[in-house]
């Protein structure tokens, strides 16, 4: 018997457009990683070797394009994870269209990255030379790009294999924590190790890492509650 008038709830897994985008992004990511695997492995290993040799943080034009792609991938994946968490914790009745919800989360993450970049530009050059500042910019761009390789599989597993929203969030937080640890670890090598500047290092942790993350968490919570439908 055919029942008419019942609308099927929207799910990302049945969205052909987003599925195609995720497929293309996955294929491009695999191609880039396979093409640049040797350079990527060297750059990743250099992140865990404390050194004052700033040449370890150099990058080429190809590296810049790849990092831009993976950063965009990170934003897109996080917006999908945010949408999944919104449905799990606040219900399926949303105040706006599902694409608008994803775009809202994407906008928040883009604003967060731009804010961090602005804060870095405002403060870090005050106590370092141009070589150190350039090394830090390259480090920030690379670690942000690496997060895209972490978040994309998590988003895909959540969407198509039914990974629970709480576990998805836990894995996403682990990715953020790993990138944060790497940046803190390398910031000590770049800026503070030679002169043993413990107080500036503590101030850096509070003002440039902890405060923006707390602001991001608060913003995401407020937006999620605002997007909740009646």
Molecular structure report:
It contains 7 helices and no strands. The protein has 230 residues and is mainly alpha-helical. The chain has one domain. Helix 3 crosses helix 4 and helix 5 packs antiparallel against helix 6. 23% of the residues are buried. The mean pLDDT is 81.
Strand and helix map with partners:
Elements: H1 16-35, H2 37-46, H3 61-90, H4 98-123, H5 130-160, H6 165-192, H7 198-227
Helix pairs in contact: 3-4, 3-5, 3-6, 4-7, 5-6, 6-7
Unreliable spans: none
**What string gives the helices and strands in order?**
HHHHHHH
First-last Cα distance: 33 Å
Secondary structure: number of strands: 0
- How would you classify the helix and strand content by structural class? mainly alpha
How many discrete domains?
A: 1
Percentage of residues in strands? under 5%
Strand count, sense and barrel status of the largest sheet are: none
Level of helix content? over 70%
């Amino acid at each position: 018997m055919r029942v008419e008038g019942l609308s099927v709830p929207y799910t990302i897994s049945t969205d052909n457009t987003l599925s195609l985008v995720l497929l293309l992004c996955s294929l491009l990511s695999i191609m880039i990683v396979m093409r640049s695997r040797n350079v990527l492995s060297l750059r990743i290993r250099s992140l865990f070797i404390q050194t004052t040799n700033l040449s370890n943080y150099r990058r080429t034009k190809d590296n810049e394009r790849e990092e831009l792609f993976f950063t965009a991938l990170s934003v897109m994946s996080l917006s999908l994870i945010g949408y999944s968490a919104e449905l799990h914790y606040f219900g399926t009745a949303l105040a706006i269209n599902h694409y608008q919800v994803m775009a809202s989360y994407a906008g928040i993450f883009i604003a967060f990255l731009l804010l961090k970049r602005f804060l870095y530009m405002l403060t870090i050059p005050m106590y370092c030379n141009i070589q150190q500042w350039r090394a830090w910019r390259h480090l920030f761009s690379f670690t942000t790009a690496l997060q895209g390789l972490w978040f994309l599989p998590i988003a895909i597993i959540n969407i198509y294999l039914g990974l629970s929203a709480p576990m998805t969030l836990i894995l996403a937080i682990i990715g953020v924590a790993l990138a944060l640890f790497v940046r803190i670890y390398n910031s000590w090598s770049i800026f503070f190790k030679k002169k043993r500047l413990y107080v500036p290092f503590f101030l850096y942790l509070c003002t440039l890492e902890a405060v923006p993350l707390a602001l991001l968490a608060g913003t995401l919570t407020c937006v999620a509650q605002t997007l909740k439908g009646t």
